[in-house]
TrEMBL record:
Protein name listed in UniProt: DUF3168 domain-containing protein
Domain of life: Bacteria
Pfam families: Tail_completion_gp17 (PF11367)
Native source organism of the sequence: Limnobaculum zhutongyuii
Length: 115
């Protein structure tokens, strides 16, 4: 699995403000877009080796949705989950919180994908 596999499925969400690893930044290092936005990261890729090669690969994926309200963050996260359903997400963990640095609410999806 690659970042393109994830991006192609969620690119149209959050007014097309979807970024791998970090939100688009301005010259001062601050977000260059207004919320909401989605950041996704492939945290790890763990191939399962067998005698004849790689049998499968476990991919750990994290999606963070930032918005001015927790309700909006959660709603977009749900759209992300639906958009990624063809990847058969497993071991899903849903987290939410507040980021005092940005003043935004965050809804997070941690999941694994067996490829």
């Amino acid at each position: 699995m690659t970042e393109a596999d994830v991006y192609s499925r969620i690119a149209d969400l959050a007014d097309k403000k979807v970024y791998p690893y970090v939100v688009k930044l301005n010259a001062a290092g601050e977000p260059a877009v207004s919320p909401p936005w989605v950041i996704f990261s492939i945290i790890s890729q763990d191939p399962a080796d067998v005698l004849c090669g790689t049998a499968e690969e476990w991919n750990s994926l994290q999606i963070d949705v930032y918005s001015k309200t927790l309700a909006e963050s959660r709603a977009i996260r749900e759209k992300v989950i639906n958009a990624l359903s063809s990847l058969s997400l497993t071991n899903q963990q849903l987290l939410q919180g507040y980021d005092p640095e940005t003043g935004l609410y965050r809804a997070t999806l941690d999941a694994q994908i067996i490829d």
